[in-house]
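Lab channel / #folding
Pinned by the channel admin:
"Please post every new chain as: sequence first, then the structure tokens as a reply. Keep commentary short and put observations after the output so the thread stays searchable."

First post following the new format, from NK:
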Amino acid sequence: MNVLVDTSVWSLALRRTPRDLSATERAVVAELAELINEGRARIIGLVRQELLSGIRNPGQFAKLQEVLRSFPDEPVTTSDYEAAAAAGNQCRSRGLAVSVSDMLICAVAQARGWAIFSTDPDYRRYASCLSIKLHPTRK
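Reply from TO:
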């Protein structure tokens, strides 16, 4: 099964230095590396944009941009955006606060039968009212 990797995971791997990571964070980065080796890691343009945003140094921006180009964006369709809005409405009706970007990630993953890999605890809350799959760190 393919896995839609959230910004939080890519950021640990690509924007943080390994020596600054906790043991748990290193396990997350190792899991991402395994998913990449297996050819199962997926990204959407919104996640790419979030990763590249806020990088002030043009050289660092260009380097990260080049690394990310190894991963093509999964096309996002009108029905994905509509499903994201519906998912957000469903979560809000149950008292959960949501972000637009998180709901798009949920909708894309759900429509394709993919799991979501994230360190963001909000996804566990979303899973209580949406039928999304979460990818665990295997080690």
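NK: The chain has a mean pLDDT of 96.
TO: also worth noting, Residues 58 and 64 are 10 Å apart (CA to CA).
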